[in-house]
Design goal:
With 121 residues, this protein is mainly alpha-helical. It is built from 6 helices and no strands.
Length: 121
Amino acid sequence: MSLKKFFRRSAWDDERSRELDAYVAIETDENIARGMSAADARLAALRKLGNRARIREEIYDMNTMRFVEAVWRDMRYGARLLRLNPAFTAVAVLSLALGVGANAAVFQLVNALRLRTLPVA
């Protein structure tokens, strides 16, 4: 399974759509060869294929990693919200930076005082 199709969904979906179009064209040609009129042959081919949108959705679902898709969708939504409110974004980024820095400083202090043995005999 190629990872390229996860990053280029629209191109991959267009390819599946063209594949379904080719199937309908082949089936239409076979129906015309059996003696049907062109309009009736196309309608019969479309009926035989079924609902094209449903088929494309099923193919999309078969080739999807739901967890990765959900995480990517959530990240895009979060980035869109942060872009809409720059003041909140600045406060959130500064708060996270301060929290990470304070956590690292406290860990260094505890590591130096309690976790390592003192350099005395």
